Amino acid sequence: MLQQEATRNEVTVLLTGLSTSMLGSDAQRATLPQGPPEKERDAMVMAFFVVAIFEVNWALRLLVVEPLAWLAIGIRNEPLVKFSQSVLEAVVYGTFTVIGIAIVPNQPWAWPSANWWRGFDSGEHLIMRSDLRCFYILYAARYIQAAITVLLEPKRKDFLEMMVHHVVTIGVVYVSYFGGWNRVGVVVMVLLDPADVPLHLAKLCKYTSEQLHMSIWQFFADRLFEFFAVLFFVTRLVMFGYVCWSSHIESQRYFIKDYAASFCVLLLYLLMVLQLYWFGLILKVAVKLMRGQGVEDIRSDDEEEHLDSAMCL
């Protein structure tokens, strides 16, 4: 009972910090509680968030999205599953994008990037405001929930890739959270989410076009895909490339990397390699799109599933 009460109190503190950071004034943000990670406490909070996200996700899907898609558009069977998944993915990625953009620039160390590294050796980077801790724990909970959902869904051809991705993401979040790399960690989170929103909106338009046989929806799908490709390039190659440079080169001015820090840099470069690979696939689609072929004409099921896996990174 005492542990449950402590968990409820901590959840209240974190969610209050998140809402204050998003909606409050600078003076209110400055008064938010700060503290280091605590494994047992944070594990209990994360478990609470996993259950909450899981319940909300499936309630929205089964009670709202699928019935509306069936009634309004006439989608059913396997296309209904894909349509519902894309709706929820767009909602999740959009929500985390809004939260990240709202709270990360408000952190006192947000810019210039040298602030991501100054004082690292002192251990001060382990001290986080409640809004930042809430975002971090919610992010981890979201991917744990996603891993569970993948197990419950009909097995797709990219099942193994999705599971590996989710497990690796959870591991990276864990290492950065407890290892003091949370500043650059949340910057990466903010950069990797936005592009997924227009991608899934494009897929929704494509599914609607296929069901209603209306060219206007295919037009929207093509334009959204183009916007997605540009946003992917800016956030995941240009801006994320800067993060990799700062983590590798700029950070050396402020502390000497140990094995854990070097491993984090290696993971960032690995992630960059993956972004380059997936951007190559995007360019392949974009070239065919410029030749007048719609997105649905040039993406096979295999291509779509592999590209979907990439967009979750």
Secondary-structure blueprint:
Layout: H1 2-23, H2 26-30, E1 34-35, H3 39-72, H4 77-103, E2 128-129, H5 130-152, H6 159-179, H7 182-192, H8 196-212, H9 215-248, H10 259-290, H11 295-298, H12 301-311
Antiparallel strand pairs: 1-2
What's the gist of this structure?
With 313 residues, the chain is mainly alpha-helical. The protein contains 12 helices and 2 strands, in the order H-H-E-H-H-E-H-H-H-H-H-H-H-H. The protein has a two-stranded antiparallel sheet.
What does this protein structure show overall?
This protein is an all-alpha fold and 313 residues long. The chain has twelve helices and two strands; from the N terminus they run H-H-E-H-H-E-H-H-H-H-H-H-H-H. It has one domain. Strands 1-2 form a two-stranded antiparallel sheet. The longest helix is centred in the first third of the chain and has 34 residues.
Q: pLDDT under 50 segments (min length 5)?
A: 296-303, 309-313
SS class = mainly alpha
Beta fraction:
under 5%
Mean pLDDT: 86
Strand order of the largest sheet: 1-2
Helix content: over 70%
Number of domains: 1
SSE sequence, one letter per element: HHEHHEHHHHHHHH
Spatial shape? globular
- Give the N-terminus to C-terminus distance in angstroms: 38 Å
Count helical runs.
Answer: 12
What kind of sheet is the major sheet?
A: 2 strands, antiparallel
Total beta strand runs: 2
Rg over CA atoms, rounded to whole Å, is 20 Å
Keywords for this entry:
two-stranded antiparallel ribbon, 313 residues, globular, single chain
